[in-house]
Amino acid sequence: MSNASYTAAGVDTTAGDLAVELMKSAVGRTHGPNVQGGVGGFAGLYDVSFLTHYRRPLLATSTDGVGTKVAIAQAIDKHDTIGQDLVGMVVDDIVVVGARPLFMTDYIACGKVVPERIATIVGGIAAACLATGTALVGGETAEHPGLLGRDDYDVAGAATGVVEADRVLGAERVRDGDVVIAMASSGLHSNGYSLVRSILRQAKIDFVDRSDDFGGQVGESLLTPTRLYTTPLLGILDDPSLHGAVHALSHVTGGGIAANLARVLPLGAWVEIDRSTWSPLPVFRVLSDMASSTLESAEGTWNLGVGMFAVVAPEAAASVIDRLDNDGIASWVAGTVSTTARDVTGFEQGAKGVDGGAVRLVGRYAD
């Protein structure tokens, strides 16, 4: 089949080549000496000979997408933040086990390759990879005419990291009396956008509308990029003075606040997270008011201002909070782990196939 007939079918390989050229410099900035072969190969190559210095290296891998948040980017034609959302969803899952991210690949499926748009998306991915110390070693852009609309696209990615076997974080490290530290989110991150879109649709509000409640254009406010936690957390994990202080981390994504924390607690452990320790960001209050619902009813969908939890030894809590605050991440003590036997009826108990501990939120949110 000739290239001309493929173009007639709706696939423009020339546009794809131009997109690669436009993104090459941004991608190249994420490459250190471990990346071999540059951009454009059939597979990305990464030199892992340094793993011989590990006693027992474990590879960690994660894959995810951005979900229906891309619909808002498409609606207002703003594509420079979606890449950070993708990296946040993927790479911040890797640091949860204590691993350092090494490299990442991305995949963009679209109805029509618009080179400048693809390059903008990948530029955002590359910038976030650079911020988290992750090499962007490859990717793929696929044109799907007839399956996706001309301006439609979706993004996904996968990353790989490494952690020393005896430094893996998780439920087995958690102890009675450990302190649960909450880390502030930047907004909705990349979860619960189907609910957001439903609320706005029922309120007859368009993404291009301007609203004082949202502080400007609705869509742009909702595209606030996902906060990246990897680099600050790795700094804490690598600090000799805090060695072993962090016992578990929980990334608050799909499933909400309590369920995600329960996944990293051991069976028999429980935590009551005190709502009064923080005030949910205005975007959550505005959306809840529009839906005539309560913030509490959204705790299983939105992060409500908490993007990550750390479960730490009590004597290290103040130091961990100071480090996070110095890195620009507001953090606070939200609860304490207990293994004392009690009735946990009404608690969230594990999630996504994990038989973990029990968590519930108590009290009222701060104003």
UniProtKB/TrEMBL annotation:
Reactions that this protein is recorded to catalyse: 2-formamido-N(1)-(5-O-phospho-beta-D-ribosyl)acetamidine + ATP = 5-amino-1-(5-phospho-beta-D-ribosyl)imidazole + ADP + phosphate + H(+)
Pathway(s) it belongs to: Purine metabolism; IMP biosynthesis via de novo pathway; 5-amino-1-(5-phospho-D-ribosyl)imidazole from N(2)-formyl-N(1)-(5-phospho-D-ribosyl)glycinamide: step 2/2
EC number from the UniProt entry: 6.3.3.1
Domain PurM-like C-terminal: residue ranges: 175-341
Keyword annotations from UniProtKB, A to Z: ATP-binding, Cytoplasm, Ligase, Nucleotide-binding, Purine biosynthesis
Superkingdom of this protein's organism: Bacteria
Enzyme type, top EC level: ligase
Pfam families: AIRS, AIRS_C
Positions in coiled-coil regions: none
CDD domains (UniProt xref): PurM (cd02196)
Localization of this protein: Cytoplasm
Keyword Protease: no
A GO biological process held by the record: 'de novo' IMP biosynthetic process
An annotated GO cellular component: cytosol
InterPro entries reported in the protein's UniProt record: PurM-like_C_dom, PurM-like_C_sf, PurM-like_N, PurM-like_N_sf, PurM_cligase
All residue ranges annotated as the PurM-like N-terminal domain in the record: 59-163
One GO molecular-function entry: ATP binding
Keyword Ligase among record annotations: yes
NCBIfam families for the chain: purM
Family, per entry: Belongs to the AIR synthase family.
Record's protein name: Phosphoribosylformylglycinamidine cyclo-ligase
